[in-house]
Amino acid sequence: MGKRWRERCETREERGPSGLSLLPWLLMGMGSLSHLISGEAANPWLGMAGLLTFNTLYIAIVFRAFDRTRRDTRTTWALLASLAAVTFALASGYGREWLLLFPLLGLALGAVARGGRQLRFLTFPLVAAVAAVTFWRDGWDSIGIVYGTFISTMVTAAILALNETVRELRATREELARSAVEKERLRFSRDLHDLLGHTLSVIVVKSEAARRLAPRDLDAALGQITDIESVGRQALTEIREAVTGYREGSLGTELDRARSALTSAGVEPVVRRSGPPLEPAAEALLGWVVREAATNVVRHAGAARCEIVVAGGPDRVRLTVTDDGRGPLAGPSGSGLLGLRERLAAAGGTLATGPAPGGGFRLTAELPATADASFA
Question: HSE of 308 in the Cβ direction (CA atoms, 13 Å)?
Fold first, then answer.
């Protein structure tokens, strides 16, 4: 019972107020109805028709006012103008209790014109016209009607505009929360892809090397198996760090790992690095690029030689990975390269891939030397 009640309250809060919230104010028209029933009003049937028309227009307007698609339409403003005409006609003709219809007109105007420019252009002319009619019909005793009309208009508009703003802020906050979750999910999936893809590729290559070496050189095969164990342990550590979000990549470490993986796969590695030391964020981003590029060379290139060049400058740093293999695979880029493009683009960098001038395949990554660490 309590859970259903909370869910019902939360749903009502999300929807916000509706036209029903302004319907109880129609009780202010009971004085007009009493005036008709008592027989003191002239032309009671005309007054009854006018009161019925007023109520009908008021109900139609307040329900349209809580529908964003219909609030600021010509039909709504035509209904509001009709309500104003009926209100002034009834108040001018009967006076007395009928003057209480003016605050209801103010409620309808505030609900329709909330937060809009029309509110300030219409409120003061309305209050001035109400003052003229009420002073004519009831003298200074009706000053409360004028004040009530002004307050009902402005307070209704302010409360409904504030409520709408709060709802928009709540929706924005929820959207930002969803976006943050999606961003973290994307980061986590990219990290796992890069970590596991590279690590499993190295394990496969070293396992094949151990299988080939075992019949003729047991010590070398055992060395490869030891490397497999070391790579596996390091992968476990990196996955734990990636899960907790504290992993900081090192370009030097990734270059060493790439050199080892390429050598185990029978690819001659050539690594050159120049330029000043890089910021940790730039190092981490380029480390991801080296990892992915080396993994692709080992898996797909069928290359005999791979050259990795890091050229740093005061403003930007460039990483180039070139192999002499069979060139880029047919079809679109894999999820690894797509993830790298997203990482680099978010940090103000670029990633270009394509055939190398002398044959083979080339990957070029450029990045600001002061990349934002939040994208690593």
Answer: 24
3-state secondary structure 228-284: HHHHHHHHHHHHHHHHHCCCCCCHHHHHHHHHHHHHHCCCEEEEEEECCCCCHHHHH
Inter-residue contact 301 to 323 (CB < 8 Å): yes
Q: 3-state class of 99 per DSSP?
A: helix
Residue environment code for 162-194, b if the CB has 16+ CB neighbours within 10 A, otherwise e:
eebeeeeeeeeeeeeeeeeeeeeeebeebbebb
Residue 253: both structure tokens together? 């470490």
Provide the H-helix boundaries in the chain: 2-15, 30-37, 44-65, 68-71, 74-94, 101-112, 117-138, 143-213, 218-244, 251-264, 280-296, 335-346
Strands 305-312 and 268-274: what pairing? Answer: parallel
Strand partners of residue 362: 322, 354
Name which of 175-184, 209-218, 271-280 the model is least confident about.
175-184
Q: Is 361 helix (H, G, I), strand (E, B) or coil?
A: strand
> Model pTM?
0.48
DSSP 162-184: HHHHHHHHHHHHHHHHHHHHHHH
The residue with tokens 């979000």 is 245
Measured at the CA of 346, the angle between CA 342 and CA 350, to 5 degrees, comes to: 70
* φ, ψ of residue 39 in degrees (nearest 5): 80, 5
In this predicted structure, the answer to whether residue 278 has a pLDDT above a threshold of 90 is no
Q: What confidence tens digit (pLDDT) does each residue in 134-163 have?
A: 888 877 777 888 998 899 889 888 888 888
Give the C-alpha separation, 104 to 149, whole Å. 8
Which residues on neighbouring strands pair with residue 269, listed in sequence order?
Answer: 306
